[in-house]
TrEMBL record:
Membership in a protein family: Belongs to the adenylate kinase family.
Adenylate kinase active site lid domain mapped to chain residues: 116-151
UniProt xrefs under CDD domains: ADK
Native source organism of the sequence: Hemiprocne comata
Protein name listed in UniProt: KAD4 kinase
Lineage: Eukaryota, Metazoa, Chordata, Craniata, Vertebrata
Gene designation per UniProt: Ak4
Amino acid sequence: MASKLLRAVVLGPPGSGKGTVGERIARSFGLQHLSSGQFLREILGIGGGEGRGGGGFGSIAAAFLPLTTAPFCRDACTGFPRTLGQAEALDRICELDLVISLNIPFETLKDRLSARWVHPASGRVYNMDFNPPHVQGVDDLTGEPLVQSQDDRPEAVAARLRKYKDAAKPVIELYKSRGILHSFSGTETNKIWPYVYTLLSSKIPPVLSDEEN
């Protein structure tokens, strides 16, 4: 485990690679990766993708996350906070050391999301372009069917991205004003990751080299 506590979150629009970056951070620095969607699925015992705005599971996420993040502020979280209200609630629980913001072009996000399929029970995500399942249409581990969320269908993607941009703008401005926001731009997670790794290495000692991850 890392010898120093690090309180960090990874922000980014749907399809930006938050989960991938969070998992790499966890492996490289000995931190616990906390995904808001997975955490709530385990607590509530329900399937589906990460909580998204607009009611339903997203409303549950907004209500539960300020209550459930308290024991986990030592770690690296992805998918939270999504709104200024959630950021303010997080402030009452712990003080963040840094915030990583992933800036991905709209066309890249649209292509990623439209090709994304999910295993509802676990939240495992596949992309038919660069991370397809071994057998088309079924989960690698369980053999159960994959589904495409209505939110990931091409006609819904643009609206989702606009909604994220509107909600995230004040959150990003808040962390920028505090001097803890670090933004990374690009179209491929593998090309963004070395810069994230270098940033974090300046804060805490890694347990894996960049090449080992």
